[in-house]
Write the structure tokens for this entry.
Amino acid sequence: MRLVTALIAGGLFGAGLVLSGMTDTRAVIGFLDIFGAWNPTLAFVMGGAILPMALAWRLAARRPCSLSGQAFPTRPNPAITRNLILGSALFGAGWGLVGLCPGPALATSLTGGIPALVFLLAMGGGMLAAIPVRRPAPPTSPVRT
Amino acid sequence: MLEPEWIAGLLGGLMIGTAAALFLLANGRIMGASGIAGDALDGTDRGGRAERLVFLAGLVTVPFLIDRFLIPVVSHLTPNLALIAIAGVLVGLGTRMANGCTSGHGVCGLSRLSLRGAVAVAVFMGSGAATVALFRHVWSVI
């Protein structure tokens, strides 16, 4: 059951990325290109994606756990950390350079040829390089040690 | 007037959000691409490895099938492999340091009114816009 819903969610995410145009790096760079021919499509994508998810969070707040029995994720530590700022700045730079973020990079991994695979390998390398910088998951609200 | 690509963006966005809603309500998990891929890659996930791998399988194969049988998936990715490698490392490192990317902090964080998510989105969009401004309009590299 959990595997089936995970497969559907992954597939729907991939299909949504294709339909929305987010697998086209030109559209993504066009959104970030505020001094050029600005393309606002990504704002519509983000708005469209936030709507069902906002409903989902409301539903989740009323239920003890997910349909699979797995607990809902607790709110992360709200602190605005150095890693959050620095990491997001580095991510944004890479995103702006070629127009790929992790979702579309995975979605185009079988259709983008060698360049897409090089990006995926480099992204995996960057993720592994982040291990020493990542702190263990911060304790969430009710847990105190 | 709405351009056709904006409407496609909105519809595609609704699908992305529905996928995220399903993953939350059915599996109790945040649909963040960098978190799912990163946790599966470095083994820091506490359980749920199989569902992450299955999620990734769906994410990778459905666009491939769309490309094969419906419409071509054109990414217009730059052929500059050095630039791609640098960008890939930055995206992988940055999203793991920040614990999220466009889907995790953006779709899942903003819809939860998370301050962390909003800060992350503001920083990566600002950084992305600054990068495009510099590399396209100042140095003409991209």
User: Anything to note?
Assistant: Helices of chain B lie at 4-27, 33-42, 49-69, 81-97, 102-110, 115-138.
